[in-house]
Hints:
By secondary structure, the chain is mainly α. It contains 10 helices and no strands.
Amino acid sequence: MCPSTAETTEGTPRRGRRAAASQLDVIEAAMHRYLRGRRVDVQAIAVELGLGRTTIYRWFGSREQLIGEVLVRAATPLFDEARAGARGTGAARLLDAFDRFNRGLRDATALRQFVEAEREAALRIITSGAGNVQPQIVALITGLIEEEVRGGNYDPPVEPAALGYAIVRLAEAFLFNEAAAAMPADVERLRQVEAALLGVRAPGARGGET
């Protein structure tokens, strides 16, 4: 009896219909476009992966939600790098980590290209509390604050979740200014204001130690 084309024999490549694409395949295809400054086109991704657009929308809800997943996946390594490289303990470590993260976002070419190409949609995706970007970034920031609190190195002025939310909203205001034609680069002032929120003197700031 001959094997069907869908069966695999040793040394013989599998033939027949390819396996259905997954949600991860969609995210990776979207990431590929995003990192190269190309528009995240749901129809093009659907054709490439052999899926229907309705399937992608059922999985992610909307194009903006899909892009949000891509932005979080692109930002997380930047945060992990900032966290690993941060020096000091307590508020000093938090400030250093947040400053490194902000600079990483500022210097991210793909993010800058996306904001410049789709400004209105980009601002909505990045800064909306109803989306999937802001809540996940807040969770990352809050988690780092809680880490310092658990270690006995930091006594936050407000609960960590509220402080984490404030830090993220502040960074949004400086990095994604609606009035600017492109992403501003004033991370120095952002660091100083974050230092005030954290209760630590930023390097180069005037005045006594907090």
